Amino acid sequence: MKKLIQIAIILFIIVELIINFLQYYYTPIDGDLVAIALPAEWYSKVLEDPTGLKTISGGELIGGAGRYMAHLTMYTYYHYVPEFLQTFISPIESVYVASAIFKLLTVILLLVAFTLYNKFHFGTKNKIYLLTPILILPLIQYYGFYDVMRTVDQATTYVFFYLWPVSLFLILYFPIYKWISTGGKQRITSWQLALMVPASVYISLDGPLMPPLFILAGVFSLLIKWSSDKNIVHVFKMIQTREVLFLLFTIIFSFYAYYLSTFNVESVPVPGTPDLKSRYLLMLQGIYILLTYDAGLSLLLVYTIILTLILLKSNPKDYEAFKKTHLILIILAMVYIMLLPLGGYRSYRPYVIRSDTSIPALMILMLIFTQVNFLAIQTFRPGIKRIFSFFLPFLLLIYFVRDIRIKKGNLCEKEGLEIISNAKTDTVRLNNPCNIMSWEPQTNPYFTHFNSQMLQVWNITDHYQPYLQVKEK
């Protein structure tokens, strides 16, 4: 029976990952990918200034300022991975497969991160932490509850800017988490520090969420460590440790990365945009929308709260080891959310908070969700456990069934790319009504200039081939 359960778990994980891969593969190319990966003229300057010092000294606003690593990663990935894949598949297929692979790798990285944290807390004795993917994978919604609990963005570009750096951050911060949780007993080694410093630089410059997240996590970590021993002599010694030096470095560098991001052309306030007070009021509406627009997020939140309260009442001693950690994580999530309006206003995020900007808070909720469930499995009495053993699978089944569909959304776009690939005319006229590497159909060949260049990079065309889409009458 034990072996059958293990086989069932492995099969479930494989099936989920296959479904996820197919969902990612059939996703159209988003309208920002080409401009960043090519890059277009307005994004090329960020790649010419890795340190950002030229941008700051010149005072010029440029596209992507403070996001150098995200732009470099996309440029490198989409110039080399599709080319490698073309050894086995067609040029058009290679682009979709490359995007699907990146999204799947990001999901796997996230699963590894959650598993590491749970392994630390639950140990290796009964290996319950290996069930982490079973609890997390159904929660990664690509269609079902996507609007309220987005993790893997349907637009591949924003996976590079959001979930990818957040997943890396969780891996990077694991040694710090262990150091704090063990009262300084589990230290960072010299070789770990040598890897963590450049990794923190990469992550800080790899998305808009990362500088604030580094600053918050660093400040929280230092405060927790300082509060455990306020003796001035011990504090002075603590400052000299590798861990504190690393935290101070990440905080300082993240302030620099945040300042650099103010030179992003998108950060310029648009006349008539809401002031700070209005942004906070809008964010409250945004939180209400996330909790009520669809049931996914509120269901997960309510379930986790109820299970935590049951543990506090029936198993207070067992939950004691997690109580402080979960409280700190909840406060961290709340402070993070409260800082969002300070990041300015974007018209495409009318309520300030959205399911992509709230990813760090969602990650905290998911981590607490897995830990209270594992604790319930280990400590509940037989009577309560029978009830619990019904509700948890039922909850996971809801998320699994809601997101099981595979929407073949890129077939029209692929058909258009095939026509462009085989065309020999000066400008290809397409009757396809769908978006082709854009956010909307392009009726002017002028606006397909960069797409046409990217098609050459991907070997989909062997010459510069502009195109336009004819409006349906």
Summarize the helices and strands and which ones pair or pack.
Layout: H1 2-25, H2 33-37, H3 41-47, H4 53-58, H5 68-85, H6 91-122, H7 132-136, H8 156-172, H9 174-181, H10 190-204, H11 210-228, H12 232-239, H13 242-261, H14 276-292, H15 295-314, H16 316-339, H17 359-379, H18 382-402, H19 411-422, E1 428-430, H20 449-457, E2 467-469
Parallel strand pairs: 1-2
Number of structurally distinct domains: 2
Considering DSSP H and I runs of 4 or more, what fraction of the residues is helical? 55-70%
What does the average pLDDT come to? 91
End-to-end C-alpha gap:
63 Å
Going across the biggest sheet, name each strand in turn: 1-2
* Bulk shape: globular
Total strand count, please? 2
Give the helix tally. 20
Rg over C-alpha atoms, rounded to the nearest angstrom: 24 Å
Largest sheet: 2 strands, parallel
Which structural class is indicated by helix and strand composition?
mainly alpha
Listing every helix as H and every strand as E from the N terminus to the C terminus, the arrangement reads: HHHHHHHHHHHHHHHHHHHEHE
The unreliable regions are none
Strand content: under 5%
Could you please describe the fold and organization of this structure?
The model has no long low-confidence stretch (mean pLDDT 91). This protein folds into two domains: 2-402, no CATH class; 411-469, no CATH class. The chain is globular. The protein has helices at 2-25, 33-37, 41-47, 53-58, 68-85, 91-122, 132-136, 156-172, 174-181, 190-204, 210-228, 232-239, 242-261, 276-292, 295-314, 316-339, 359-379, 382-402, 411-422, 449-457, and strands spanning 428-430, 467-469. A two-stranded parallel ribbon has the order 1-2. β1, α20 (449-457) and β2 (467-469) form a beta-alpha-beta unit. α10 runs parallel beside α13 and α15 packs parallel to α17. It starts with a helix and ends with a strand. It has 473 residues and is mainly α. It has 20 helices and two strands.
